[in-house]
Write a structure and sequence with these properties.
Layout: E1 10-14, H1 22-29, E2 35-38, H2 46-56, E3 63-66, E4 79-85, H3 96-105, E5 114-121, H4 127-132, H5 140-153, E6 158-162, H6 170-179, E7 184-188, H7 194-203, E8 206-209, H8 212-215, H9 217-222
Parallel strand pairs: 1-2, 1-8, 2-3, 3-4, 4-5, 5-6, 6-7, 7-8
Helix pairs in contact: 5-6, 6-7
The structure holds SN-glycerol-1-phosphate (1GP).
């Protein structure tokens, strides 16, 4: 399946390390969302990633893997998103792990299926920030510099403002939308109701809805209203 992420307004992010019933997975996959990102910060393995992919593949929704660990690179996804944590203090999360993987698989990679994501992780209390040793004490000018690095220096297709677990500063997100020209702005973090989805969708190109899927499925499905994607039988 050819996936055009530039048309994505709304995606769900599903974590292979978390449990979702078949019924809930079906409601997510047939909700009308533009895509499913499979990814997580901890506990992601080859086996739990294969398992989740196989379950999602019963449905027609595009499904992409956000690669978080070299051992969990599973064939069969529509696309592979490769995070580059621009505000990490450890080069391992910027190019280190990437180089390790490419030493092994570089010659056989299908680059048509790979997209780099320039990440800025801003919630210091998130697993993602702790894991990647992200410098979260940054201001708008810092984040703007990262956005320009992503777009103009590295020509990355995606700039991802990540507040995983908490709802972020929408004025900052809006400012990054004004700064970026062609690079697509993803926002994720703390979208757990329609109002927050609306605010985030007004600020970013693509909103990513994660944890609430596991905590309150009906609330998760309500986030589709803002982009006109809801399928009425589910909400
Ligand atoms: C996490 O950006 C996503 O990578 C979504 O965040 O889980 O807080 O919705 P939440």
């Amino acid at each position: 399946m050819i996936v055009d992420i530039t048309s994505w307004k709304h995606v769900f992010k599903l974590d292979p390390d978390k449990t979702l019933s078949d019924e809930h997975l079906e409601r997510i996959c047939t909700s009308g969302t533009h895509g499913i990102i499979v990814g997580g910060s901890t506990g992601v393995t080859y086996d739990n990633t294969v398992d989740l992919l196989a379950r999602i593949r019963q449905f027609e929704v595009p499904c992409v893997l956000e690669v978080s660990h070299r051992d969990a690179i599973v064939p069969g996804f529509d696309l592979y998103l490769i995070p580059v944590v621009l505000n990490s203090k450890d080069p391992k999360w910027i190019v280190g792990q990437h180089a390790e993987v490419l030493k092994e698989y570089g010659a056989i990679m299908d680059w048509e299926e790979v997209l780099a994501e320039g990440y800025v992780i801003l919630n210091p209390d998130s697993d993602a920030a702790r894991l990647t040793n992200a410098e979260t004490t940054v201001d708008v000018q810092d984040v703007e510099a990262y956005a320009r690095i992503a777009e103009h220096l590295f020509h990355m297709p995606i700039f991802y403002i990540e507040y995983s677990g908490t709802f972020g500063d929408m004025e900052l997100v809006r400012q990054m939308r004004r700064t970026l020209r062609n690079t697509q702005l993803f926002y994720g973090g703390g979208i757990d109701n329609q109002e927050k989805a609306q605010a985030a969708a007004a600020a970013a190109d693509t909103i990513v809805v994660g944890n609430i899927v596991y905590d309150d499925l009906d609330a998760a499905l309500q986030t589709l209203y803002v982009v006109g994607l809801e399928r009425k039988q589910y909400v």
